[in-house]
């Protein structure tokens, strides 16, 4: 099950926008805290350090008004993930959680994996194909060569 911190970090990754040179950039914790505090739709003020503590999991019990203010900020962004207080705090496993997933759920809970996936989802099909090719090269260079038993002379077999 994803924690509040993991869900919040997923929203930061999902809210990434292209910078001046086209790289996706997440909003900074400081930017989000300032935007929440400056929002006239509510009376919540939040510090960068408190928002950081929510993101790293050292603070785990924000008030409903803080959660609501965070949701209000992310609802104003172009998001692909569901954005609501219940989506942020819901700890019930998804309906298909009982099905075997070969580690996919654990991998997708990782913030870096989510960030990569969200960024890849915004690429053109051609760029996604290039990214997959790069990842194939990285995968093959990270694995030791598999022994096939068909090596020739000098492979250590007699």
Question: What is the topological layout?
Answer:
Layout: H1 4-14, E1 17-18, E2 24-25, H2 29-38, H3 48-56, H4 64-75, H5 85-89, H6 104-109, H7 111-121, H8 125-142
Antiparallel strand pairs: 1-2
Instruction: Give a quick account of the main beta sheet: strands, pairing sense, barrel closure.
Output: 2 strands, antiparallel
Question: Going across the major beta sheet, what is the strand order?
Answer: 1-2
Helix content: 40-55%
Which structural class is indicated by helix and strand composition? mainly alpha
How many individual helices?
8
The parts where pLDDT drops under 50 for at least 5 residues are: none
Calculate the mean pLDDT score and round it.
81
Total count of strands: 2
Strand content: under 5%
Order of helices and strands: HEEHHHHHHH
Question: What gross morphology would you assign?
Answer: globular
The CA-CA distance between the termini, in Å, is 52 Å
Taking all Cα atoms into account, the compactness measure Rg is: 21 Å
